Amino acid sequence: MDDCGDNSDESPSLCTQYKMYDFDENPQNLGDFSQGLTKVDDQQDWSLYKGNSTPGLPTMDHTTGTHYGQYIYLWASNRTKFGDTAWLVSTPFQASTSDKPCSLHFFYYIYGSNGHQINIMYRTHNNGPADQVVWSVSSSYGAIWQRASVRISVSQPFQVIIEGQLRGSSYGVAIDDLSLSPGCSVSDSPLPALPVTPPTTPPPACTSNQYLCIINRMCISNRSRCDGVSDCPDSSDELGCGCSKDKFRCGNGVCINLDKKCDAANDCSDENASDEKDPSCALYLRFSFESSSFGEFTQGHTGIEDKTDWQIGQASSMSFSGLPLTDHTTGKSSGHFLFARSNNPGDTAWLISRPFGATAGQNCQMKLFFYIFGSSVHHLSILYRTHNAGPPDGQIWTSAGQQGPKWLEASPLISIATPFQIIIEAYVAMANQAIAIDDVSFTPDCQHSVTSLPPMPVITTVKPVTLATAATRTSQPLLPVCRNTELMCDNQLQCYPKAQLCDNRNDCTDGSDEAKSKCTCYPDFCLNGGHCLVQAGMGPTCRCVNNYSGFYCNEQPTINPTSAFHQGSNSNTEKWAAPVGVILALLAIIAVVGIYILHKRNRGHRFPFGFWRRTGSSDGLANPIYDYGTGDSDVHAAELEPPNLQDFENPSGMITFSTSGSVDNPLYTEA
C-alpha cells in the first residue's frame, strides 16, 4: 500500500526482505502458509475469490482496487455451524525478540452484524491447539478493507496461525495483501510434536446464546462476554470488548470510530444503520443532494472566482468520463450527487458554504465523499477564507490524481481562529471530464456564525510627508501583499520568491512552499507519454513527446497551415507535372538549336536556303541567281554565296559607297 504517496515505502530495495502474498500472481501458492487440517485443526478451509457483486464479500480486492483482483475468504452459509473455523498455519519460524519481532501486516474485511472474528495466534508444537491469542478483531467497519499490524515475540520456535471464525449463517471474512517482516525467519528444525490424548467426550457445540472460547473450545454464556472477568482459560472472552470514549457502540454491539457516525454511510453494517439513526445525528449539518438542492452552499462567481459551476446529476443520466455508476447516499444509479465538469483543461469550480464561527479549540470536523477517476490529474481541495470575497486564505485538505473507481471519504478537522467560509474547489485537468462529491456533513461543533464575514481589506498607500517611509491605511489588519515575482505561504503570513518553490528548502514557516501537493509528480500527471519533472520555481512540469503540447501534454499536435497548403498543391501538380516536363524539354532543345545557329552565323558559315516562285508565271523581278527556264518547268534555286566583308573593302581598307549613298551590292548593277 502506498502510504507515502510516492510509493517509496513500497520500493523493491526496501521490501526485498519481506515476504508478501497478494494472491494474484500465483494465487494457489500460499508460500509459508498452508491450510489447517480439517476436522483436526479446523472445520473449513480458506478459499480464493475474485470480487464481484456477492453480498457480504468485497467487490474489489485490496491489491489492485478492481474486481479482477483476488483475495482469500471464509464464507458462512446455512450449513455453517456456529463457531466453525478455518486455519492458515505458517511454517516454523525461529524465536523472535522484542528488538526484532516477527510482524504480520495484512488487510481484512468483516461485513455484517454476525460478529465473525479473525484471530492471530501462535503455537510452539507442530500439532494441537494454539498456545496464545495475540490479536483478535470482530468489529465490522462496513464494506471497506481495514489494515492490521501484529507483532509476535516468542522465546522459542513457533508457528503463526491465522484463524477465521464464523458466528452466523451469513456473510464472512476476507484477507488480502499479507506480508511477513524480516523478523519472521524460517527455522531449520521442525517443531516438536504435542502428545495427543484422545478426548473422552466430544467438545460441546455452542448455541447462539453462548460464546466459544478460542483455544480450548469451551462454551460460556454470552452474558460472561466482556464482563471484566476472564471466563475462558485463554481470556479470549475479554478480547476486543466494549467501546472506548472515542468509539460509538452500534446496535449490534460493534464498535466504530466516532468520526464514522452520522456520515451517510452504514459503518455499523447492521440492518437499521444504527450509526446513521442515532438521535445525535440531528445536530449534524448533512447534505445528500437528494432533493435536487445545493443546501446551504452557493456557487462561486464564474469568471471571477472560478471558471465553471457544480451541477446536480444522476448516474443513470450521465455519460461524462470519470463519473460514478451510483451515488453514495443510496448506492443506486438513480441517486443524486454533485459534479463539476470542465469545458476547458484546468477549469475550476467553487462551492461556498455559509459563514461558520471560529472553531479553534473545538472538535469541528467536515466530512464528504468524493470520486476522482480518469487518466488526468484532477484535484479536489477544501479551502477556507475569512472575508466575504476574494481568494482563499488557506488549504485544509486536498487530493490529487485518480483514486480508482470508488467513493472515498475525506474527514479533515477544521481549526480556524476567526469566522470563515468553506470552499470546495474542483480542478478538472481535462475538458469533458468530471469530479463528483456526495454526502457533505459537519459535526455539531461546526456552528454557523451569527455575523457576516468582513469585506476584503482596502489598501491605500499615502506618499510620505514628513515620515521616512510610506504610511499605509487599512480598514482591517493587513496581510502581506506579494509581488508578481512572489507567492503567498499557506499560512498567509509571508511571501517567498517564486524561484524558491520546490527547491528542497523550507522558506515558509509552515513548510507550504515544499508541500507534497505542490512538489510531487503524481501518477499520470503528464499525459500522452509526457515525462514529469519537479523543477525549482515551477513545481511539477511536463516534458512532452510526439509533438504534444500544453501544461499536461494534453494538446494534440497541430498541422502547419502552410505545410498543409503545400501538401495539397503537391498532390494537384502531380497530375500535370509530366506534360510540363515534356514542354520544358522541347523548349530546351529549341534554345540549344537557336544558340547553335547564331554561333555558326557569327563565324561566317554557309547555310543552304531555297527560294521558290509560283509555277506558270512569266512575270517577276530579274535576278541573276534565278533561272526561270521556260514554260511550266519547275523553279530551280541556286545557292547564294554570302558576301565576304573583304568584297566591300578597297585597297585602302575603306568601305566603298555608291553615289546614291547606298552600299554596293555585287548582285546588282545600274543600267
TrEMBL record:
Provide the EGF-like domain boundaries: 520-554
Q: Which cysteines are joined by disulfide bonds?
A: 226-241, 243-255, 250-268, 544-553
Record's keyword terms, sorted: Disulfide bond, EGF-like domain, Membrane, Transmembrane, Transmembrane helix
- Pfam family name, one: Ldl_recept_a
- Designated name of the protein: MAM domain-containing protein
Tagged with keyword Cell membrane: no
A single cellular component GO annotation: membrane
SUPFAM superfamilies, per database record: Concanavalin A-like lectins/glucanases, LDL receptor-like module
Which ranges does the record mark as transmembrane?
576-598
Residues forming the MAM domain are 22-186, 285-448
Q: Which InterPro entries match?
A: ConA-like_dom_sf, EGF, LDL_receptor-like_sf, LDrepeatLR_classA_rpt, MAM_dom, MAM_domain-containing
Query: Among its keywords, does the record have Coiled coil?
Result: no
